[in-house]
């Protein structure tokens, strides 16, 4: 089954939708925030924006009527990511979610990567409690999976251990840490100032570092067997094409 | 989780209610609105979660609230009423203190509302609501929710089995622990993927992927739901109208300015209060009804 | 009306020359209840999957399958989904969604039914299957039996005209299995739905079926009513006959060749009636049939004196290998059993001398130090055969003989039992939650060194908890647990599981880490201080012991259930345990693999390994166990040597015993009963 052309078209349609959102809807929301809502409604506006960014993925995925096997793969990987946290109960902050999301992106493409990430962010909060942090986590995990998939397709990211570990460490520190800290400033601090943001990065640095180290370690030990296993299922059962 | 009257309503009613109170809590900074929201959120959380909610509110939320209220003036120096100067020469203003309190109040309210949301909006309600617009994604959600407890059991089984061949994740240095943990995860992955193939077969076997799939739910939108929904919509309408007329308005910087209460304003306050207290009211009414029925039998 | 007509169906998996199915011709009529049996890997599942083309595996197919008069492959997906219901083997894998009600509706949603229709159908199903009380529960709170019932109900909700079930009860405990099969039978009786079922539990399934189809190596070898198909199998001397219900086996063993047309008993009730008629007849005087029987079975009957029928009838190892071995009767099987053991036996004296078993108070594991316990049976083969003829009487002596032979070889004093018991529980109490109920109540028992100890009892009585207490995974809140005189929970995993204790988990898949069986066996030495050479030697010994040679290059998950069990057993044996704990080792295994496992365990046991086994499988415990203990309500109610134990039970005992206990309460296995019948002649 060659689905390559289809994948390309999907990407463009998603890009268009995303572009429309970024260029029109998001600025409109910001303007609404500034003028209609008297500004300083950061929490609300930022949540709206984060939610927007996820809409194109949802729409494109729904429209192409995915097959049972695709659903299964995404659900299994997301569930592994969530349950994986249970396997590491003894090591706090040492979580495999980002590593699994990256592997999903590399093996099954950016879309699957995003959905695995977003789904694991969402579902894990069914167990830990939903809150204003849910959309942020969904977005961060999702976007890392998406980037991994896109970079792999472009050939910039390899399946080698080193390549994955470098990407994993950087993306955890920069993408996840970067966005989540903005999110927590939006949530906790009423005023978005440079100082508050810096303070948040400084206080979150150690957590983010441990998280990044964990991701690197997971990718180091887990990437090869995981990719082997996913490939094996792909071959044995013709699961899904990347 | 206790059975509460409000959670027995249709998911649409539940969801609309929480969407409204959450958005309002994030947007309205007017002291009266904030007080109404915080108080009713607390009342609802105690009704829904009982003693656990009280403990949570006191132990976790109160310190957070205080901390946030203190931190804000340290970072924000806007405002005209300067109270004193910090050591680094920055002024602490009345406005930023008040704003800090208001913002932390809004945040606390959001958190408490979410704790109520978590008690009422169970996963199947959410899946039902989004099953209509996003059938595939909501099915994924349902599957993940099915898999996670199953995988957790399997993680336990694997870690026990591995422990019984001398690979104990709870002992040894961190590196060894991490390696054993990763081994468990790796075993779990193989197991999950191999078993998932059969699940995919079960889905195909029961016709998943045929066109025109419908979405079934055990929820029925009955007369009670209709009444509650109408009442809610009415109250939300009044609150929004009030917001449009600026009854909820407050300005903190450069100096605090609150719109004075008008009779219409008071009506809006009342509407907001009634909206926020809706679950509590329903609960109390039902309990009274039950008591009166029980006493007659 | 004909539902299926299969002509000349042959099928081979990709990249394989061997046909998984060859030349199958079948016609299945509407409303029939068809049971299909055959040993693992005979093509049962492949055949079932071809009956629902959407599940058919890829590969080369020839021949035709017609469904309701039209080629099955042309049946559109909607009809396939609704009309052909398929229930998978593992109840957990069949369930897709997280709530019971949603699962019931899943298929109907796919078919695009409206809210009202689904509501009605779901309600109907919930009532028919008695699901009301757990209708709104999350799926993960259900028991295994409930899950499989849910699978069945959610398939039945689509009102199929055929119901296909692929070993639906293999993962269930005996009580839920019987309930499930009764429900299937009810569907067949009350709704007229055609049922096609593969099953290992023929004891329970056959009385319900109208027709039995036996597959061997992808071909149909018998297709008739269960009674006649059974008689036919017996006539062929086919190893599959060993899996038939005990009454049928006893009947065949006693009356063989009597009157082919006379119906063989299928259930315990029929068996009893037959036995009574027969025994009264015997008492009354001559029975012509007996004489005829003697003639007809000729030398095989003569062989029964030394070598019981039990071995062949419980699936002889040679037959289990899957060859076309259609040996006339048990006698010929015996030699085939000797070679592996004999081969080891030759190498034994040398290795026995330089044994490292200096430890006095512990029985040597023997397992993997180059001298396999497998050598033990070889020692007693000349004495008494692998199994004594009259087990009830000779059991204990034979066992002792076997053991002492082994000990002599090792220059060990026979007085070993005087040492500390292998496992001892003293006034043990355990609960999972501080405020929860006690899972283990005042439990005291001892397992002597070298004993083969079986814990039997219903679900949720605390059997598995007891195993966890033994392996130190859990700690009692009162009382003492001692393994070889030491507290397992206080010992580190390194100490406890090196050369002392090994646990074979219920699901062997939880042990597999690597991508081939061989790599996986080597994996156990990760971090162990051994030379490459030592590791290789040990692994090779384990491979020989568990007969894994042909499977080494395979992925552990591509093995069948029985093979996985063996690979896992080999893996834990590499730890050279002196005590082996097993949790439900026979779950999901067919008769052949069970027999094989039983044989392995006896080999190990004879080699001095203490075995503690938790099981639901009464027949297996009666057959292979030494001591059996009844577990109930968190404690051991009674414990005795296996045969007297089951002989003393009225209800919780083997089918053969239930059938014959009014005459010979101590006849526990089918072989016992046959022997008594012969004696009373």
From TrEMBL, chain A:
InterPro entries: ECF_substrate-spec-like. Keywords: Membrane, Transmembrane, Transmembrane helix. It comes from the Bacteria. The chain crosses the membrane at residues 15-35, 42-59, 71-91, 98-123, 135-152, 164-188, 200-222. This is ECF transporter S component.
From TrEMBL, chain B:
InterPro entries: ABC/ECF_trnsptr_transmembrane. The keyword Membrane applies. Keywords: Membrane, Transmembrane, Transmembrane helix. CDD domains: EcfT. It is found in: Membrane. It is a multi-pass membrane protein. The chain crosses the membrane at residues 12-40, 60-85, 97-120, 126-148, 228-246, 266-285. Its main location: membrane. This is Energy-coupling factor transporter transmembrane protein EcfT. It comes from Paenibacillus glycinis.
């Amino acid at each position: 089954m060659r689905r390559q052309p289809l994948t390309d078209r999907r990407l463009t349609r998603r890009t268009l939708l995303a572009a429309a959102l970024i260029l029109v809807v998001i600025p409109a929301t910001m303007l609404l925030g500034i003028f209609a809502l008297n500004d300083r409604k950061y929490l609300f506006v930022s949540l709206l924006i984060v939610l927007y960014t996820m809409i194109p993925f949802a729409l494109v995925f729904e429209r192409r009527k995915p097959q049972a096997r695709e659903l299964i793969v995404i659900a299994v990987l997301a569930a592994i990511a969530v349950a994986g946290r249970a396997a590491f109960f003894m090591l706090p902050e040492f979580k495999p979610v980002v590593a699994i999301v990256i592997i999903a992106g590399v093996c099954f493409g950016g879309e699957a990567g995003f959905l695995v990430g977003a789904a694991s962010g969402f579902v894990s909060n069914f167990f830990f409690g939903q809150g204003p942090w849910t959309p942020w986590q969904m977005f961060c995990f999702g976007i890392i999976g998406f980037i991994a998939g896109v970079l792999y397709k472009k050939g910039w990211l390899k399946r080698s251990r080193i390549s994955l570990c470098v990407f994993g460490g950087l993306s955890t520190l920069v993408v996840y840490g970067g966005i989540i800290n903005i999110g927590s400033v939006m949530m906790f601090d009423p005023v978005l100032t440079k100082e508050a943001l810096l303070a948040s990065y400084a206080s979150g640095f150690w957590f983010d570092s441990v998280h990044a180290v964990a991701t690197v370690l997971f990718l180091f030990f887990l990437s090869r067997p995981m990719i082997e296993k996913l490939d094996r299922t792909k071959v044995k059962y013709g699961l899904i094409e990347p | 989780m206790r059975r509460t009257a409000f959670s027995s309503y249709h998911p649409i009613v539940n969801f609309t209610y929480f969407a409204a109170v959450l958005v309002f809590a994030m947007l309205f900074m007017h002291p009266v609105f904030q007080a109404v929201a915080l108080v009713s959120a607390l009342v609802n959380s105690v009704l829904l979660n009982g003693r656990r909610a009280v403990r949570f509110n006191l132990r976790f939320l109160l310190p957070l609230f205080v901390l946030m209220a203190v931190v804000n003036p340290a970072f924000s120096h806007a405002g005209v009423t300067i109270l004193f100067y910090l050591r680094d020469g920055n002024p602490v203003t009345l406005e930023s203190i008040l704003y800090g309190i208001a913002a932390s109040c809004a945040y606390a309210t959001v958190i408490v509302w979410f704790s109520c949301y978590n008690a009422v909006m169970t996963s199947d309600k959410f899946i039902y609501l989004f099953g209509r617009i996003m059938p595939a994604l909501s099915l994924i959600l349902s599957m993940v929710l099915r898999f996670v407890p199953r995988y957790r059991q399997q993680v336990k089984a694997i870690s026990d089995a591995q422990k019984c061949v001398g690979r104990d994740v709870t002992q040894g240095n961190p590196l060894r622990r991490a390696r054993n943990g990763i081994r468990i995860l790796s075993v779990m992955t193989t197991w999950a993927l191999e078993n998932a193939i059969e699940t995919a077969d079960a889905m195909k076997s029961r016709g998943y992927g045929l066109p025109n799939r419908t979405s079934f739910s055990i929820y029925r939108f009955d007369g009670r739901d209709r009444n509650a929904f109408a009442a809610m919509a009415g109250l939300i309408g009044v609150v929004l109208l009030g917001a449009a007329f600026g009854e909820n308005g407050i300005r903190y910087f450069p100096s605090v300015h609150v719109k004075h209460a008008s009779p219409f304003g008071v009506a809006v306050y009342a509407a907001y209060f009634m909206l926020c207290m809706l679950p509590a009211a329903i609960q109390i009414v039902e309990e009274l009804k039950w008591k009166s029925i029980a006493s007659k039998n | 009306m004909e539902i299926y007509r299969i002509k000349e169906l042959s099928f081979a998996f990709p990249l394989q020359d061997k046909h998984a199915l060859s030349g199958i011709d079948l016609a299945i009529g509407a409303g029939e209840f068809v049971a299909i049996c055959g040993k693992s890997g005979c093509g049962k599942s492949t055949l079932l999957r071809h009956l629902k083309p959407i599940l058919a595996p890829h590969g080369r197919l020839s021949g035709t399958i017609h469904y309701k008069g039209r080629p099955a492959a042309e049946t559109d997906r909607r009809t396939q989904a609704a009309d052909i219901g398929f229930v998978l083997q593992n109840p957990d894998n069949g369930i897709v969604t997280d709530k019971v009600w949603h699962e019931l509706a899943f298929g109907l949603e796919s078919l695009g039914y409206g809210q009202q229709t689904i509501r009605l159908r779901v309600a109907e199903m919930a009532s028919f299957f008695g699901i009301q009380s757990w209708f709104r529960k999350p799926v993960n709170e259900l028991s295994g039996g409930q899950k499989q019932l849910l699978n069945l109900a959610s398939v039945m909700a689509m009102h199929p005209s055929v119901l296909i079930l692929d070993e639906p009860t293999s993962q269930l405990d005996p009580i839920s299995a019987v309930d499930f099969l009764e429900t299937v039978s009810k569907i067949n009786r009350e709704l007229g739905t055609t049922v096609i079922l593969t099953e290992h539990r023929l004891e329970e399934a056959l009385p319900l079926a109208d027709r039995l189809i036996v597959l061997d190596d992808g071909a149909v070898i018998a297709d008739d009513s269960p009674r006649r198909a059974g008689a036919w199998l017996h006539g062929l001397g086919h190893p599959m006959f060993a899996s038939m219900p005990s009454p049928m086996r006893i009947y065949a063993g006693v009356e063989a060749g009597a009157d082919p047309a006379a119906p063989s008993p299928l259930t315990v009730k029929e068996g009893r009636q037959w036995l009574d008629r027969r025994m009264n007849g015997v008492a009354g005087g001559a029975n012509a049939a007996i004489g005829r029987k003697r003639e007809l079975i000729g030398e095989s009957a003569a062989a029964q004196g030394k070598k019981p029928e039990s071995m062949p009838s419980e699936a002889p190892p040679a037959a289990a290998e899957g060859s076309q071995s259609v040996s006339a009767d048990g006698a010929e099987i015996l030699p085939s059993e000797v070679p592996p053991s004999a081969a080891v036996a030759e190498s034994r004296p040398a290795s026995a001398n330089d044994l490292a078993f200096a430890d006095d108070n512990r029985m040597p594991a023997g397992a993997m130090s180059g001298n396999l316990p497998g050598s033990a049976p070889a020692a007693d083969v000349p004495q008494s055969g692998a199994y004594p003829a009259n087990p009830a009487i000779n059991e204990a002596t034979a066992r002792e003989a076997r053991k002492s032979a082994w000990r002599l070889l090792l220059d060990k004093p026979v007085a070993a039992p005087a040492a500390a018991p292998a496992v001892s529980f003293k006034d043990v109490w355990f609960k999972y939650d501080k405020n929860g109920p006690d899972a283990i109540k005042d439990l005291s028992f001892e397992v002597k060194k070298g004993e083969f100890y079986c814990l039997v009892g219903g679900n949720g009585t605390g059997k598995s908890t007891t195993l966890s207490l033994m392996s130190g995974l859990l700690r009692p809140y009162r009382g003492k647990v001692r393994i070889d005189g030491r507290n397992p929970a206080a010992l580190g995993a390194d100490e406890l599981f090196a050369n002392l204790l090994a646990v074979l988990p219920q699901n062997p898949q939880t042990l597999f880490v690597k991508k081939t069986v061989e790599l996986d066996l080597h994996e156990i030495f990760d971090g162990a201080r051994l030379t490459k050479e030592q590791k290789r030697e040990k692994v090779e010994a384990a491979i020989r012991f568990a007969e894994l040679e042909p499977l080494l290059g395979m992925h552990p998950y591509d093995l069948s259930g029985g093979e996985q069990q063996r690979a896992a057993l080999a893996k834990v044996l590499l730890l050279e345990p002196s005590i082996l704990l097993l949790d439900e080792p026979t779950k999901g295994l067919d008769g052949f693999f069970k027999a094989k496992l039983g044989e392995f365990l006896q080999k190990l046991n004879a080699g001095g390994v203490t075995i503690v086994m938790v099981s639901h499988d009464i027949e297996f415990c009666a057959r292979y166990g030494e001591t059996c203990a009844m577990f109930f309500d968190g404690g051991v109610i009674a414990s005795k040597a296996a045969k007297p134990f089951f002989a003393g039970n009225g209800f919780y005992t083997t089918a053969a015993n239930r059938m014959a206990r009014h005459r010979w309460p101590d006849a526990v296995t089918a072989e016992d009963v046959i022997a008594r019948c012969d004696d009373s002649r």
